[in-house]
């Protein structure tokens, strides 16, 4: 399947910003199940300073704001050829060792809520893949998909306590629970072609677990499936903070409004 992606993120500031930097992880990876055919990125209100491949094999671009900027716009466009690998990415790559993905982070630290969701699965289900799909089912039953109830800093434990969240929260809960069962697990940010719409106001997130001998295998908790050809992987990390599409800093107290427009459709 050939997917065309258009992604525009716009930041408006109510007063001029004297200095700002943003770190962008917006370039998809060519890997098992996907091949990037072309990809372009344009910046309005700022300029690219450098780019590099990080320890998760994410392509990262660093951009600076133009002096006294009142807005900055990031445009991405490209095409990706995808195939159905049943969510299997395969062998590990990058500088970060596999064992690192068993380390908890502030967003994925397992407490009593996470441990309750994972309890008994290792004894009840023998095989890894069915066991992890069962974990995914438990999570979506405990934490309904609902926007506006959580934020970027919501932890896995907090999202379970709230009882609702979005794909980011589902991924963090799944990662935290998988690690308690001994699996290396990581966060994935990317795109999903929706069946009922072209325009979206946010990118998508899911999780991957390292399962020998298969290697990394994806699980989209929010949709209850492993990724198929409708998915485009962009960045991976221990949690959202290491795979966020855009993160940064700026000087001053300017108020900020952000708008995101994403289009994913089959060519």
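-> sequence recovered:
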């Amino acid at each position: 399947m050939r997917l065309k992606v258009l992604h525009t993120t716009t930041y408006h500031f109510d007063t001029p910003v004297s200095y700002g930097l943003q770190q962008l992880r917006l370039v998809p990876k060519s890997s098992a199940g996907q091949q990037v055919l072309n990809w372009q990125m344009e910046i309005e209100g700022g300029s690219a300073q450098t780019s590099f491949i990080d320890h998760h094999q994410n392509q990262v671009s660093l951009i600076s704001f133009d002096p006294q900027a009142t807005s900055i716009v990031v445009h991405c466009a490209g095409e990706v050829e995808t195939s159905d690998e049943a969510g299997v990415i395969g062998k590990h790559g990058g500088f970060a060792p596999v064992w690192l993905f068993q380390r908890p982070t502030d967003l994925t630290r397992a407490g009593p809520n996470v441990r309750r969701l994972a309890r008994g699965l290792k004894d009840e289900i023998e095989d890894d893949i069915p066991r992890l799909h069962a974990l995914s089912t438990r999570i979506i039953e405990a934490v309904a998909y609902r926007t506006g109830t959580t934020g970027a800093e919501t932890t896995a434990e907090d999202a379970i306590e709230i009882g609702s969240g979005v794909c980011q929260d589902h991924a963090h809960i799944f990662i935290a629970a998988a690690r308690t069962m001994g699996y290396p697990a990581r966060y994935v940010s990317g795109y999903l072609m929706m069946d009922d719409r072209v325009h979206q106001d946010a990118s998508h997130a899911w999780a991957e677990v390292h399962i020998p001998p298969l290697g990394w295998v994806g699980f989209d908790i929010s949709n209850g499936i492993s990724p198929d050809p409708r998915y485009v992987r962009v960045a991976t990390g221990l949690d959202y903070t290491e795979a966020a599409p855009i993160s940064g800093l700026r000087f001053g107290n300017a108020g900020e409004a952000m708008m995101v427009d994403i289009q994913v459709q089959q060519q």
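The helical segments are 112-118, 121-124, 128-142, 156-162, 167-180, 240-243.
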